[in-house]
Design a protein that fits this description.
alpha/beta, Rossmann fold, 4-stranded parallel β-sheet, Ptyr_pPase, Ptyr_pPase_sf, arsenate reductase (thioredoxin) activity
Length: 152
């Protein structure tokens, strides 16, 4: 059992797709020992296609909020994961001790074509994010297991 939950903040430009999906996957896959939130440099509202493809995978993100990042959010995080280049470049300065990772994910909201082609791009992004979150969780668990101060 872990002493406290690891807090992860997923940061994107508008907090409408990629960061929302990452928050949903992290909480779905690691809720017993981590707490994920998401925010944006701006808040653009939630993308209905992101909600739909996550629902297809059995993860409900419809209750999540599209929010703008604040200094208290950054201060509470153990790890900030930027999921797009714009957020990585414009990420506010992090408080001491807060680690940062960058995942350069394409924005599915910029996909063009038929509805099926656009949804295929959203599904591909969803699946890539799931894979990255699984890898992140595995790495964090290994670190926590090797550090006796992180467990009870």
């Amino acid at each position: 059992m872990y002493k406290r939950k690891v807090k992860i903040l997923f940061l994107c430009t508008g907090n409408s797709c990629r960061s929302q999906m990452a928050e949903g996957w992290a909480n779905h896959l690691g809720s017993e020992w981590l707490e994920a939130t998401s925010a944006g440099i701006e808040a653009h509202g939630k993308n209905p296609r992101a909600i739909a493809v996550m629902r297809e995978a059995g993860v409900d993100i419809s209750h999540q909020e599209s929010t703008r990042v604040t200094p208290p959010m950054l201060a509470q995080a153990d790890l900030v994961v930027t999921v797009c280049g714009h957020a990585d470049e414009h990420c506010p300065a992090l408080p001491p001790g807060v680690r940062k990772k960058h995942w350069p994910l394409e924005d599915p909201a910029k996909a063009t074509g038929t509805e099926e082609q656009i949804m295929a791009k959203f599904r591909a992004t969803r699946d890539e994010i799931k894979s990255r979150v699984e890898g992140l969780i595995g790495g964090l668990k290994m670190m926590a297991r090797s550090d006796p101060h992180e467990r009870t």
